[in-house]
Amino acid sequence: MDSQTIDIKYFIAILTRLFKRLNRHEVFGLSGELAYFFLLSLFPFLLFLITLVGYLPLSAEGILDFIEPYAPEQGMAFIEENVLYIINQENGQLLSIGILVTIWSASNGLNAIIRAFNRAYEVKESRSYLVSRGMSIILTFAMIFVIIISLLLPVFGKQIGSFLFSVLGLSEIFVVLWEAIRWLLSTVIICIVFTGLYFFAPNKKLKLSESYPGALFATVGWIVVSYLFSYYVSNFGNYSATYGSLGAVIILLIWFYLTGLIIIIGGEINAVIFKYHHRKSFH
């Protein structure tokens, strides 16, 4: 039996088990739960992030620009309007009093992801409530850190690159090249975030290499689905006509639902491959 036949059988075995798990683990229902928690966590997370970057050479608009390429247009307008409104109301003193409540709220989405991944690996949460909740808070901080780094790199990277390319007399080439670098950098950052989630979140001892398949799927899948959904909403889906002023919220919920679905399927992919290689209760 040649290696190509083995690869096809391996792929079919993984895919077959994956489809069976989607129904058994209530993946579509869990995605709805994640969408709910993502919506509740969105503004506390963004406001806390904006408060932190106030001490850095960044702006609230820079953070919103980071999200804009992936979010549906109407949903992005809703996010921008409300975040900037709250910032103006608070006069820059965001979350100074309720910081613990804010972090607690912002970690709700990650806490739901932890539970979804535990179901994917079919393990119970043996960690105490404080440890489990602490893990979701730590992952929240980790995501904030990664996002800040991803925002700072373009700022300083562009300055350094512009200087070097101007010295070499290649300033026009740099403009084109930099756009490609920025796109690639954003993709790498997203992949790092997903890899961290798949490695740390489940109550399962994993190798870092066992987190890559789901992370790659989630990265490509989320970017593609986000762009397709954004295109659909912009050109075909007139939610405002159906839902009125709630249209933007409905769009965000659907986008979060698709995001949750992609993330959970990525966790299921990792779990199926893990069970296949360990040959324990592979079903």
UniProtKB/TrEMBL annotation:
Pfam families: Virul_fac_BrkB (PF03631)
Signal peptide: none
Record's bilayer topology term: Multi-pass membrane protein
Chief location bin: membrane
Subcellular location(s) per record: Cell membrane
Domain of life according to the entry: Bacteria
Keyword annotations: Cell membrane, Membrane, Transmembrane, Transmembrane helix
Transmembrane annotation, as ranges: 34-56, 94-114, 134-153, 160-177, 183-201, 213-234, 246-274
Cited NCBIfam families: yihY_not_rbn
Protein's UniProt name: YihY/virulence factor BrkB family protein
Source organism per UniProt: Bacillus carboniphilus
